[in-house]
Amino acid sequence: MSLLPKALSKLIESFEKLPGIGPKTAQRLAFYLLHVPQEDLDDFSKSLINLKSNTVLCSVCKNVSEADPCDICKNPTRDKKMICVVEQPTDVLSIERTRKYHGVYHVLHGAIDPLNNIGPDELYIDDLLKRTCSEIILATNPTMEGEATAMYINKQLTTNNKLKITRLAHGLPVGADIEYADEVTLTRALEGRREY
């Protein structure tokens, strides 16, 4: 005999399927929603229902958007000769918050990860290789998978001598203590040093 109503149990199971949500968090979220006014709950459910139907992948950069092409790709003030390659649409949001980058993007929707059966064919790498530009900024995450993806893309693009391929700088974050930095971070910080 279950102590919870079926509707609540099913909701908890649904939350548990989301990345980063464990059983305790799923339970906490479900019980929280029990106390939310019905109107707010209806709005929440409409947002979930409309998520897929009201979004598309931009045919140019593969970012999630309401229209095709996306606002960034169709913006005439963006530098179309500079493409910043990122793993996820959330990476675009992070870079845009800096207000320092004025080029366009290419979203891979993941990184090469052989352990999880994700190879180059599962990502939007071929679409990137078809695009024309003068510089590609490899802004994949500084993880093993992100590095493997950046190396693979670099290898695919090295046949074009006129193309400038750059990588985001890696190193110590602002406010960090050197004493707590790992060897890889310190090595990259030393390699990526610049004149003061």
Automatic annotation (TrEMBL):
<dbReference type="Pfam" id="PF13662">
    <property type="entry name" value="Toprim_4"/>
</dbReference>
<keyword id="KW-0862">Zinc</keyword>
<dbReference type="Pfam" id="PF02132">
    <property type="entry name" value="RecR_ZnF"/>
</dbReference>
<protein>
    <recommendedName>
        <fullName>Recombination protein RecR</fullName>
    </recommendedName>
</protein>
<dbReference type="InterPro" id="IPR000093">
    <property type="entry name" value="DNA_Rcmb_RecR"/>
</dbReference>
<keyword id="KW-0234">DNA repair</keyword>
<dbReference type="Pfam" id="PF21176">
    <property type="entry name" value="RecR_HhH"/>
</dbReference>
<dbReference type="GO" id="GO:0006310">
    <property type="term" value="P:DNA recombination"/>
</dbReference>
<comment type="function">
    <text>May play a role in DNA repair. It seems to be involved in an RecBC-independent recombinational process of DNA repair. It may act with RecF and RecO.</text>
</comment>
<feature type="domain" description="Toprim">
    <location>
        <begin position="81"/>
        <end position="173"/>
    </location>
</feature>
<dbReference type="GO" id="GO:0006281">
    <property type="term" value="P:DNA repair"/>
</dbReference>
<keyword id="KW-0863">Zinc-finger</keyword>
<feature type="zinc finger region" description="C4-type">
    <location>
        <begin position="58"/>
        <end position="73"/>
    </location>
</feature>
<dbReference type="InterPro" id="IPR015967">
    <property type="entry name" value="Rcmb_RecR_Znf"/>
</dbReference>
<keyword id="KW-0479">Metal-binding</keyword>
<dbReference type="Pfam" id="PF21175">
    <property type="entry name" value="RecR_C"/>
</dbReference>
<dbReference type="GO" id="GO:0008270">
    <property type="term" value="F:zinc ion binding"/>
</dbReference>
<keyword id="KW-0233">DNA recombination</keyword>
<keyword id="KW-0227">DNA damage</keyword>
<dbReference type="InterPro" id="IPR023627">
    <property type="entry name" value="Rcmb_RecR"/>
</dbReference>
<comment type="similarity">
    <text>Belongs to the RecR family.</text>
</comment>
<dbReference type="GO" id="GO:0003677">
    <property type="term" value="F:DNA binding"/>
</dbReference>
<dbReference type="InterPro" id="IPR034137">
    <property type="entry name" value="TOPRIM_RecR"/>
</dbReference>
<dbReference type="InterPro" id="IPR006171">
    <property type="entry name" value="TOPRIM_dom"/>
</dbReference>
